[in-house]
DNA sequence: CGTACGATCTGCT
DNA sequence: GCAGATCGTACGA
């Protein structure tokens, strides 16, 4: 188990990084509970020229301030008044890149994740969707700005290699307002079935 | 200060 | 498949 170092998050290619994060393991230690999940879906948000990004046109507010910080921090914000969406800030200071984590497959603390989701048995839909990921992992806006080099939220490389054959690419979800940028292929995902077929999980 | 809307989820059909 | 929930945030007056 190897925790991703700061240098990983300073990569300037946020789209390539979003692809690379598939198969990495998101871990939280929140409320005295350790939970972990395999990252199965991501979206890249590429700075001030990306109409879908909160930082489009150099927009910089209290909400998205952390996007402008050095890579390796969390960016958590509230969507539709109820959903806490968890992003990973990348690139060096001043360039607001971020990766939205949209889906995980629980690995550790599954009981706690199910409890937080008010479910009794896991199926993909239980932790599929960015709001559900945060809820299962115990992440809220209180975790906004947390360093991924600390002991509250971090990402590990546990050696799971995701072959390109099972990686799906599509436009991002729910950003119809973004004009021509709405069709950019910045969403990456793998399915539970795809992982099973390649014997990457049980 | 008022208004519009959103990187979504759930439940019901 | 679809409507409704629900409220913080952004932005213009």
Structure explained in plain terms:
16% of the residues lie in helices and 29% in strands. With 202 residues, the protein is an alpha+beta fold. The protein has a single domain, classed as 3-methyladenine DNA Glycosylase, Chain A. Strands 1, 2, 3, 4, 5, 6, 7, 8 and 9 form a 9-stranded antiparallel beta sheet that branches. It is globular and about 45 Å long. It binds a DNA duplex (13 and 13 nucleotides) through strand 4, strand 5, strand 6 and helix 4.
Core attributes:
202 residues, alpha+beta, 3-methyladenine DNA Glycosylase, Chain A, nine-stranded antiparallel sheet, 29% strand, DNA-binding
Counted by DSSP, the helix tally is 5
Structural class: alpha+beta
CA distance, first residue to last residue: 19 Å
Mean pLDDT: 95
Q: Compute the number of strand runs.
A: 9
Can you summarize the main beta sheet? 9 strands, antiparallel
From the 3D coordinates, which CATH architecture would you assign? Roll
Stretches with pLDDT under 50, minimum 5 residues: none
Overall domain count: 1
Instruction: Report the CATH C-level class.
Output: Alpha Beta
The percent of residues in helical segments reads 10-25%
Relative strand content = 25-35%
Q: Give the name of the CATH superfamily.
A: Methylpurine-DNA glycosylase (MPG)
Shape: globular
- Radius of gyration, taken over Cα atoms and rounded to an integer in Å: 16 Å
CATH topology: 3-methyladenine DNA Glycosylase, Chain A
Order of helices and strands: EHHEEEEEHHEEEH
């Amino acid at each position: 188990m190897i925790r991703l170092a700061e240098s990983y998050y300073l990569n300037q290619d946020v789209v390539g990084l979003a692809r690379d994060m598939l198969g990495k393991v998101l871990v939280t230690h929140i409320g005295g509970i350790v939970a972990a999940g395999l990252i199965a879906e991501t979206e890249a948000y590429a700075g001030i020229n990306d109409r879908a990004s909160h930082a489009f046109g150099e927009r910089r507010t209290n909400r998205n301030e952390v996007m402008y910080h050095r890579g390796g921090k969390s960016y958590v914000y509230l969507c539709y008044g109820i959903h806490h969406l968890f992003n990973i800030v990348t690139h060096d200071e001043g360039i607001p890149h971020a990766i939205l984590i949209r889906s995980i497959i629980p690995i550790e603390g599954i009981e706690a994740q199910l409890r937080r989701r008010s479910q009794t048995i896991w199926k993909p839909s239980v932790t599929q969707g960015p709001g559900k990921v945060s809820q299962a992992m115990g992440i809220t806006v209180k975790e906004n700005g947390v360093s991924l080099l600390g002991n509250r939220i971090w990402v590990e490389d546990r050696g799971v290699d995701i072959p390109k054959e099972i990686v799906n690419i599509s436009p991002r979800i729910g950003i119809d307002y973004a004009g021509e940028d709405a069709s950019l292929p910045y969403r990456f995902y793998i399915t539970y079935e795809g992982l099973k077929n390649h014997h990457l999980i049980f």
